[in-house]
Design a protein that fits this description.
6-stranded mixed beta sheet, binds adenosine-5'-diphosphate, binds magnesium ion, globular, 4-stranded antiparallel beta sheet
Length: 273
C-alpha cells in the first residue's frame, strides 16, 4: 500500500512538470522559399526538453534549411520558431511578427549550439582557444574562466591531451569533438547537428557518435540530421522524416524506422539501410 501511494505521487508530479515547462523547441507553421523554390512547406515540430530528435530525409528535402531556420540563420517567410517558449528572431506584435535587432538575435543564437558537417573550427586557434573563444567574445566569461571551462569540456569529449593542438594536427573525428565542446561552451539549451559524421572516414564515425550519445544520455536537448539509422534507433526519442519540405512521418524510432507508414519513408530507408 505504501509503495502504491509513492508511485501515485510521482505520476502526478511528472504530469505537472510536463504541463508547466515550455517545449525546448517549437517550429510553428514554417514556410521558406528561395526565389520561386519552396524549400519548407508548413513545418510543425515540437521537441520537449531533454529529448533527442533525429531528422531524416533525402538530399535537398530541406533538412539543413530547417536547422538554419531554428537558429535564425535563415528567416522563414511564414511562421516562426520558439526556443524555451521564446520566439527566435522575432517578437509578436498583435497578429504580426516583427524582426528583432541583429544584436538581440545574436544574443538568442548563443542559446542554440550548432555543429556543422565540416567542423568549421578556427584554423589559427588551438583546440582550447576554439572552445574558449565564444564565451569570451560574448562577455559571458573572462579568458581564464573560459579556458578552465574549455579544459573541462575537452576532457568530456575525450581530448584532454589535445588542448594545445591546432585543428590541422587533429583527425576529422577529433576536430568534430572539439566542435562539439565548442558548442557546449555557451551552455546552450539545445544543440543542432547537421550531418556531424558525414565528412568523416568510416573508422572515425564511432568516436563522434559516442560523444553525441553521451550528451543524449545527460539530458541535453538535441536535434540531429543524420543518415546513421542504427544510431537514430538507439538515441532518438522521435524520428522525423522530411521530404520536399514537408514532414511526411514522425514518431518514435520503432514506428518510423521499423514500421513506416508512407511509401516515401520506406523507399528512403531501403536506400540508406
Ligand atoms: P538538405 O539539407 O535536406 O539536403 P537543404 O536544406 O540544404 O536540403 O536544401 C533544400 C533545397 O533548398 C535544395 O533544393 C537546395 O538546393 C536549396 N537551397 C538551399 N540553400 C539555398 C540557398 N541559399 N539559395 C538557394 N537555394 C538553396
Ligand atoms: Mg543538408
Amino acid at each position: 500500500e505504501t509503495t502504491e501511494t509513492i508511485e501515485d505521487t510521482r505520476t502526478t508530479g511528472s504530469v505537472e512538470t510536463t504541463e508547466t515547462r515550455p517545449a525546448a523547441v517549437e517550429v510553428h507553421g514554417v514556410h521558406k522559399w528561395y526565389g520561386a523554390h519552396q524549400v519548407l512547406n508548413g513545418v510543425e515540430l515540437t521537441v520537449q526538453p531533454g529529448e533527442v530528435t533525429v531528422i531524416l530525409g533525402p538530399s535537398g528535402s530541406g533538412k539543413s534549411t530547417l536547422l538554419r531556420v531554428i537558429n535564425h540563420l535563415e528567416k522563414p517567410e511564414v511562421g516562426y520558431v520558439s526556443v524555451n517558449g521564446e520566439p527566435i528572431g522575432v517578437r509578436r506584435q498583435g497578429a504580426r511578427l516583427k524582426e528583432l535587432s541583429e544584436r538581440a538575435i545574436l544574443g538568442q543564437r548563443g542559446r542554440i549550439g550548432f555543429v556543422f558537417q565540416n567542423f568549421n573550427l578556427f584554423p589559427h586557434l588551438t583546440a582550447l582557444d576554439n572552445v574558449a573563444a565564444a564565451p569570451v567574445a560574448t562577455g559571458k566569461l573572462t579568458k581564464p574562466q573560459a579556458q578552465g571551462l574549455a579544459r573541462e569540456l575537452l576532457g568530456r569529449v575525450g581530448l584532454a591531451d589535445k588542448v594545445g593542438a591546432y585543428p590541422r594536427r587533429l583527425s576529422g573525428g577529433q576536430q568534430q569533438r572539439v566542435a562539439i565542446a565548442r558548442a557546449l561552451a555557451l551552455r546552450p539549451g539545445v544543440i543542432l547537428f547537421d550531418e556531424p559524421t558525414s565528412a568523416l572516414d568510416p573508422e572515425l564515425v564511432g568516436e563522434v557518435l559516442a560523444v553525441i550519445k553521451d550528451l543524449a544520455g545527460s539530458g541535453t536537448t538535441l536535434i540531429i540530421v543524420t543518415h546513421e539509422i542504427g544510431f537514430a534507433r538507439e538515441v532518438a526519442d522521435q524520428v522525423v522524416f522530411l521530404d520536399e519540405g514537408r514532414i511526411v512521418e514522425q514518431g518514435p524510432p520503432t514506428e518510423v524506422l521499423d514500421h513506416p507508414e508512407h511509401e516515401r519513408t520506406r523507399d528512403f530507408l531501403s536506400k540508406v539501410l
